[in-house]
Each structure stands twice: as structure tokens, then as C-alpha cells.
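User: What would this chain look like folded?
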Amino acid sequence: MNTYLVLKWVHILSSVLLVGTGFGSAFYLFFANRSGSVAAQAVVARLVVRADTWFTTPAAIVQPITGMALAGMAGWPLSTPWLAASIGLYVLAGLCWLPVLWLQWRMAAMATDAAARGGKLPADYARFARWWEGLGYPAFIAMLAIYYLMVAKPALWGWA
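Assistant: Here's the prediction, encoded as C-alpha cells.
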């Protein structure tokens, strides 16, 4: 197997880890937050933080490295419209994701503390959860659009 194919495999695998872990984590925390169970919220929020630490963050780092290498090896300038759009969407997703990391850490700490005390969640938890969810939607839509652009490589803005 040549270097290009190895990089392509790593790029695809890391994109699956990035989007799959992100979507799975969002799914579970979304529903845990609606369960009314502080214990469930505490466990799921801690696991979401762990998943982002172990899987999402490394994949988010690997993605641009392998993507830029693949583009260079294939001879695609970064100004190629589908590639430039992908990079812009990736930056948008990252700008949404960075505050989400902080929110998740805080939510996990608040839920863990409330569960240990056998008490209710502080009001900030609900506010943070709304921001967490609100930032997640554009990030996820951006990632789906990137998948489309990577696969279809459409002509945009009048040229390929």
C-alpha cells in the first residue's frame, strides 16, 4: 500500500471517529439531560468528556494534518473551491466545538457534584446544556457538509 492510500485510510478512519463519537456523545447526553436523573446526567457527562479526550480531540488533530497532506499529494491547491469550503466548514465546526469542550467539563463537574450530594443541578447546568446543544447543531451540519464535499468534490463557484 502506498503512502497516499495509508493517509487516506487514516483520514477516513479519523473522520469516522470524529463525527461518530461526537454524534454518539451528543445523542446520549441530549437524552440524559432530558431524563430527570441527575445520576444519569453525571455518568453520561463524564463519559462524554472522556470520549472527547480519547477519541474526538486526537481525530480533530489528525484530520487537518492528513487532509492537507492528501490535498498536496493529489495536487489540489487549497483554493480548490470544494476544498476551501471544507476547510472553512471545519474551522466553523471547530469554533463551535471548542466552547462545547469547556461546557462539557463544567456540566460533568456540576452533575457529579449534585449526584454526590443527592441534590439538584444548579441553574447554570440547564443554561450550559442549552449552549452545548445550540453549538452542536451547526458543528454537526458543517461536518455532514464536509463529508459531502469530500466525497462529491463538486464544482463550486463556477469551477472544479
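Residues 38-74 form the longest helix (37 residues). If you want, I can go into more detail on any region.
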